[in-house]
Structure formats: structure tokens, C-alpha cells
Amino acid sequence: MKTQPIPTPTSLRVLLVEGDDDAREEFGRVLEAAGHQVILCPGPSEPDYSCVGTRSGTCALAAGADAVVLDTRLRGDDLFGGTTGWQLAILYREQGLALVALADASDGTSLLRGEGVVILRRRPTEQALLNGLARAVSEAQPSR
User: Fold this and answer.
1) CB–CB of 41/65 below 8 Å?
2) How does pLDDT run across 68-125, given as a tens digit for each residue?
3) pTM (2 decimals)?
4) Burial class, 111, CB count within 10 angstroms (exposed 0-12 / middle 13-18 / buried 19+)
């Protein structure tokens, strides 16, 4: 049986944090085609792969965003230094944002269980991404 799409509120502001250039562009196109405003972020970068948001406690790019789509494996994770994807996930949740976390099955996803958090396998289908976003937003902000 085919799952029915979950209605997504139109014109969400979505912060997309994805270290892979191709995936970031692909997911950005999917979200924009669905009517959302997308703020693109490659995640922490050289030289130390740290994020200003984790040092200050707030992310300027997330200001005004309704939700975040975050690949939990970023460049710093691969280099074992800097800010990890999971640290960013926790930061965004502390800011009260709905979160779609893209993770491998072996990742410590139990850190983020709760309302407003949807965990999808890395490289989800377009429909899975949009359904996950809709669910995260509806759980985080039921009055929306």
C-alpha cells in the first residue's frame, strides 16, 4: 500500500545543512519546488570545522527558520574535529526548531527522540523528505 503524502504548510523557511554539494542542491530544489524558502548551509568548514552557533548558543542562519533539515554527518565528523552534526542537531532543538535529521541506521539517533524531530535515512526520497518535514513541523508547532 502506498503511503499518502502528509500536507506540508506552504512557504516554510527551511535551513538545509548538508555538507555534500550535490545532495544540498538536490534537497534544496525539492524543498523549493514544494514552495518553501530554503537557506543553504554547507555546515562547519575549514580550517577548524567549528560552528559559530555552537560557540555562541545560537545560529544566525536559523533565525526566523521554521525547520531545519540536517545531515548529521558533516565534514568535521569525518575528520574527528570541530562541530559534529549531532551537536548542531541539539543546538537547533534548543532553539525550538522542528528538525529533520538525516542519519545512518548505526548513528546514535536516540539522542534526538521527541516531538518535532523526524529521523530519516540519509538520501531520502523526495516524498519521504517532504513528509518528514511536514511531520516535524506539525509536531513542533501544532497550532500551525
Assistant:
1) no
2) 999 988 877 777 678 888 888 888 988 889 999 998 866 655 566 778 999 999 899 9
3) 0.85
4) middle
Question: In CATH, what number is assigned to the domain containing residue 27?
Answer: 3.40.50.2300
Domain membership of residue 88 (yes or no) is yes
Inter-residue contact 41 to 72 (CB < 8 Å): no
In a domain, 4, yes or no: no
Looking from the CA of 107 toward its CB, the CA atoms found within 13 Å total 22
The domain of 17 spans: 13-42+49-140
Q: What is the pLDDT of residues 6-34, one digit of tens each?
A: 555 578 999 999 989 999 999 999 999 99
Asked, for residue 1, whether it belongs to a domain, the answer is no
Q: How many domains does the chain have?
A: 1
Query: Is there a contact between 53 and 46 (Cβ–Cβ < 8 Å)?
Result: no
CA dist list (Å): 11 to 66, 110, 111, 119, 123:
10, 30, 29, 22, 23
CA-based nearest residue to 43, from 27, 20, 22: 20
**Residues 6+ positions from 94 with CB-CB distance below 8 Å:** 57
